[in-house]
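Render this sequence as a predicted structure.
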Amino acid sequence: MGAELRARARAGAAPLVQDEALLAALAEAEAAGLFDDWVTAFLWGHLERAPAPVAEPARVTRRELMHRLHAHARVAAAMTRARAELQDVAFVPWRSKAAPPPGWREQRRALQLSSVLARHVRDGDAGTWSRSVLIELRVATGSAPLTRVRAGAPERFAAGQRVRVDRLDLLESSAGEVVLEHAELGRLTISADQQLSTWQLPALLLAPNDPARARIEQTITRALAGDERAALSLERTLVVTHAIVRAAVSANAAEPGAPRLRMILALFDDAVVRAREDPPSLAALRRP
């Protein structure tokens, strides 16, 4: 898959991967026993360049992709918790002629790993994907209902209800426009019959003369100057404003507050450094 993307890039086209290819890459990783938040971030990050699905079969595939990514992140988080609980999971045999220290033969952490991991998968969440970079929105009075698809499960929110959105969610509208409200962003409108991932949400702020866009740009200006309150405000709205913040940081990299905003963007990307080139094969993702 990486070779194909680089060939397209050399031809002058933006790298674009179909959801089916991302699902195949995820299946390959899991078949090899590779569960890692970096895999989730790497595959999910390709949706930045993917348009919102229009046809229903494409939307079903997008829901399946986000469901699988959520499940992968859940297992990866469970493995981290299990390792923290059990410490060293490998059983090393005693190789001395002398008797082992008390308790050596009772070390059964490796045998406990399966049950401990299953418990954390059952009771835990998707780690930072569930707890970091969230935003709470309210469906405005008189708005059409909003459907949030999380981990493959659709949930409907009527006018007046609040909905929490994280990076692996999909937002869907049906017959009418959905109007969402936020204390700092104002009103955001999703047109009828749409399916949006968080990569498409910044487009809601691109309307001409949008007062929300003007407020965000003013906040970014203050944050670039070193205003910590402005930086925290951007962190609270990053699910919707990430693309605008990224463009501003790129254009003003020498400003005093730019390093702080780069750290905030790393929360959204779930990686300190974003992948700029795809590996030649999935084998390159495996840790040595």
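Summary. The chain is about 45% helix and 10% strand. Residues 56-86 form the longest helix (31 residues).
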